[in-house]
Amino acid sequence: MKKTARAHTNIALIKYWGKADAKLRLPLMSSLSMTLDAFYTDTSIEESENMEFYLNDKKQDEVATKRVFKYIDTLQHKFGVSGNLTIHSTNHVPTAAGLASSSSAFAALAGAFTRFYDLNVDNQELSRLARIGSGSASRSIFGGFAIWQKGHDDESSYAYALDEHPNMDLYLLAVELNSHKKKISSTMGMKDAQSSPFFESWLKRNDFELSEMIDAIKNNNFTKLGEIAELNASEMHAINLTAQPGFTYFEPDTIHAIKLVEDLRKRGIECYYTIDAGPNIKILTQLRNIKEIKKIFESEFNNVNIIKASFGPGISYLD
Ligand code: 2P0
To answer: What residue stretch is flagged as signal peptide (predicted)?
Structure first.
């Protein structure tokens, strides 16, 4: 018997950057994301003799296999089920796109697990299970716009759909500037960031920024959405820079790209940036501006790769 689930990646417009509980992956703040159609992971689970993990048809080494099976072990314990499994994951996420595949990976894995063992869980519980694998995965259970409410324990920390089928002219351009493997994992980065003198201010702003973002979405206000997303991302990177010791995910090309987005705006081409735990930027814009933005970025950077994404769906099951 084999069970397969598909989950799409998401981009946080209000970011998760700080944990209250590392083991349960309980966040210190609520976050809000857009699920993306262009990037997804398919994961299948089947019975086998040994525990094996294949990523894009390649058997993975011990380190990668360990994180996956540690998670599977946690879920097996939770539900009182057992057995050796072979897991096949196919990432339709260009690794260089700077989009975390862990959001789609752990969402698809949680979905395949619950189907394989025929567990009766709704999407709220599935979101909690995905969260334990990787925080951002909690949001990838849902399509469109999703909110991960921080909650205060395992039961109350889950994502839900704000709008699964938004009727909004909003696109994301993933700009691949630098394909080097990132040096600081998200898990490490968000831990270190807590030493910033601005960390408390970052947390205090969460409720306000989240409600402003919800307003922007409900009122179909792209300008407001872009302004808040850009500010929120800059705040996250500011607490990294001001951590003790400070660090940054930015590379010289990241700053170059930020300036280009600001220049484009001054010229009336409305776009905003958001940046995750890596050097690449993602541009938020509207349909009429995509062609021009791509043209300008391609002329400014050598060999830049730009991938367009729009709203993606929630989790689905392929067999
Ligand atoms: C987010 N990021 O909200 C934030 C913004 C990156 C920057 O969630 O430690 O892989 O596995 O819970 O979910 C990426 O971190 O972290 C992330 P863990 P995760 O999307």
So the answer is: none
Contact 305, 176 (CB under 8 A): yes
- For residue 100, the model assigns a pLDDT of 64
| Probe residue for ligand 1, chosen from 136, 230, 248 as the CB with the greatest number of ligand atoms within 8 Å | 136
Do the Cβ atoms of 139 and 31 come closer than 8 Å?
Answer: yes
Q: Whose CA is nearest to atom 15 of ligand 1?
A: 186
Cis peptide before 313 (omega within 30 of 0): no
The number of folded domains in the chain is: 2
Structure confidence at residue 311 (pLDDT): 98
Per-residue pLDDT tens over the stretch 114-168: 999 999 999 999 999 999 999 999 999 999 999 999 999 999 999 999 999 999 9
For 198-251, the pLDDT digits (tens) are 999 999 999 999 999 999 999 999 999 999 999 999 999 999 999 999 999 999
147, part of any domain: yes
Give pTM, 2 decimals.
Answer: 0.96
Any ligand 1 atom below 6 A from CB of 135? yes
User: Which CATH number does the domain housing residue 64 bear?
Assistant: 3.30.230.10
Compute, in angstroms, the gap from residue 25 CA to the centroid of ligand 1. Answer: 10
Q: Mutation test of ligand 1: which of 91, 276, 281 has the most ligand atoms closer than 8 Å to its C-beta?
A: 276
Q: Whose CA is nearest to atom 11 of ligand 1?
A: 134
Three-state DSSP class for residue 134: coil
- For residues 283 and 261, give the distance between their C-alpha atoms in angstroms, rounded to a whole number: 8
- Measured from the Cα of 276, ligand 1's closest atom is 7
Query: What is the CATH number for 201?
Result: 3.30.70.890
- Domain span at residue 53 reads 2-166
Q: Give yes or no for residue 91 CB within 6 A of ligand 1.
A: no
Domain boundary among 127, 143, 166: 166
